[in-house]
Amino acid sequence: PPQLSLSTSTSTSTPVHFPSLHALLHFVLLYFLVSFSSHQPTKAMAPFGINLFSKTSPEAPKQSNAKKGEINDLHKQLSDSATLDNPIKRKELLQKVILYTTMGFDTSKLFNRIIMLVHTNDIIQKKMVYQYVTRYAGSNPDLAILTINTLSNDCRDDSPLIRGLALRHLASLRSIPKISEHLLPLIKEGLNDPSSYVRKTAVLAITKLNRINPKIVEKEQFVDRLYAMIRDKDSQVVVNCIHALNELLKDQGGIKAPKKMIYFLLNRITQYNEWQLGTILELLLKYQPKDNKEVFNIMNLLDDKLQLANAHVVLSITNVFLQFSENMPKIHQKVYMRLKEPLLLILAAESSEMQFSVLKHLKIMIERCPQVFQSNFGNFFLNRNDPTYIKLAKLDLLVLCATTQNVKQLMEELSYYVTLNNTDEDASVSRMAIRTLGAVAVKISAATEVSLSHLLDFLEMGLVHVISETFIVLKDILRKYNNPEFCSIYLPQITKHWKLIDDHKSRVAFIWLLGEYGDSKYIKEAPYILEIFISKFQSFHHTVRLEILSSAMKLFFKRPPELQKMLGRLFEMAVADASHADVHDKALFYYRLLQKDVNIARQVVGGAKSLITEFAEEESEEYKDRLFNEFNTLSIIYGKPSEMFIVDVDGILGETENDEYVEEEEEEDLDEEEEDEEQDEDESQQEQQQRKRDIGELSMTSPNASSSLLDFDDQEPGTGSSTTHSGVSVLPVPRILQPQEFESKWVQGGDGGKMSWKLSASSSLNAENVESTLQQRGITCVASSAQGNPLTFYFYAQLKSTHEYILIEVRAYQDGTVNALLKHEKGDEQTANKFKSYFFDSFEGL
Questions:
Q1: Cα–chain-centroid distance for residue 169?
Q2: Which residues make Cβ contacts (< 8 Å) with residue 549, sequence separation at least 6?
Q3: pTM of the entire structure?
Q4: Helix or strand or coil: residue 570?
């Protein structure tokens, strides 16, 4: 594939990693255990990345006396030294304990015995013990402390599998007091471990540490370290760093995506497996190419990946292509043409579940560009072996692909689906096929006559579910196409089948037909049919009762002699109806309207109506655009924006109930930090020097480059680093300062001096340009005035070495004069002077 060049750095190849014997044995073991878990579904399986042991839920099996006896027997066997000395019997006992725990039984009483088995060289037994301890550490924190030394020692074992395993489970013991003290040094060691397995585990351990004590994560500058490790030679470490940064920086919108980082990741695209590639593509969506040429380069690089058989990758690339080309209309349609074939291939080859996901995404695409897929409508015909949910999803797409050229073939195919009525599932497909046929008729006016002939044939089938659905569709068609000729010929035939309808929606549709077409020239029997419904008024659903009221009023003005007495009885029943407020209120409204003025009532109820051109049920364009912006997410599957189904809740799945230790630990840590501030500063400086050495080892830039590894921001050749200049270095993405916090630091900060200069005539002085230019240099605007003379800005930057803030007030006049006032958090005049030169060069970049 074409390479995106940005610097003299080159990508290093990474050897292919095959699954370890330990991982395979572990998977086989757990599969064996879960297969004997009776009728209770296991909450998770460890090989799939979910906690093996869930808390006992109301659905979990009750602790029967027999199981209690077996657990007591296990306790006795675990107390027998002769049994424990036999490795085979010891493994069998652990397997039984794991089995019962997976099934939801409470095995916590075995904790004091299981914890004694932690000293073993068998990695499978060690993993089972670790997972058991992690599950029940919350209810036995005092005993769980005993495992810390063993886990800490295993984190320094010769085997990388044991080191990673121990670190992962140690980070999960969040209910143990002071766990962060033991975890912090081990994470630091793990980040520098020669084994990629240990490094990727350490990266994820940072996120667990952040849940325990976020202050430590901020103090140790783990965010900077994770940015640095994005250049790690192992692709899984890189992907884990991206996930970790997204979690640590979720309040700031997740990881940033500057140009250098994106180019570095894309140039190594051949080294990622399919699921890792999905993460890279999600990050790519945060990047905004500067011009069309850059868009084409990125799309050309990703184009060959569309040949992969992985639906996740294809949909992710589809999302990138659509988002990047959205503002280029001509290219956008060509992108749809390019994406059509890979998506249709995935649709034909993948599992039913994945087919459903692809169909839902295709629906969004066809709604935006139907002409591209209309010639391929045959791909969405139903297969006999398709699950029902696949059939229903395909029928949705057939409506979108309908045209005047293919409507006849489409109607014949839909008519065939209606005849599939052997099972309840087929009945649901038949109903949906009738609705689809009606939707096509509403969409294409030329298909109205053909669709009506098919609908009349459906009524002759004599099937209850077909007749019921047909009445609903007829109502929708007649709401849009009011053809007197059709009504006079076919409506009398339609009313012969009304006795077979059995649900309230179809009853509502039929009663609507009686009210609208109850004239003697259309449906002569309308008043007498309606009288039958009135006699059973109280037994119907409230929607049916409401429609009876409306239709009775309409018929009263069309055929008053026949309806007068019926209407009186109806009002008497409806006004006395206390089961539903709407029925009572509507009847009372009609009664008082007639009592006030019959002519006004005639105008209100029976006035002329304009033909319907658009149904309220149809989604608005704004709604569709919101869904399109959430492409390749659950929003597409659910068919609604994320804010309609995502609930923001506190807490994390799988947390233990004993979280008071975490709060106490944070308070104690804060006290200790205040007492040992000087010692912490010395240690912080040592860690910073170590971090610089690590960065130097991992740096992929040329030896003469002066830029920091953390500086991923793109800039033109010859301009130097965007965050390092004249001995001062700032973070490319500083921690966000809220306006109140900025004001407080401004009042307390030391004077950093003043600056004044005049911009060149070629400089572009507008608020948006100033803010975006300085943002690329790590100088963030907290407030500004977009208009006026002068333009006023308040900026801040964060020093990389000490994480202290420098605050700047800027007044820029239209004649090019710029005045700046600096304040330094610690009042360091020397640092402030160095920053002045950096700030001046940044501003001159305008």
A1: 27
A2: 570, 574, 583, 586, 587, 590
A3: 0.65
A4: helix
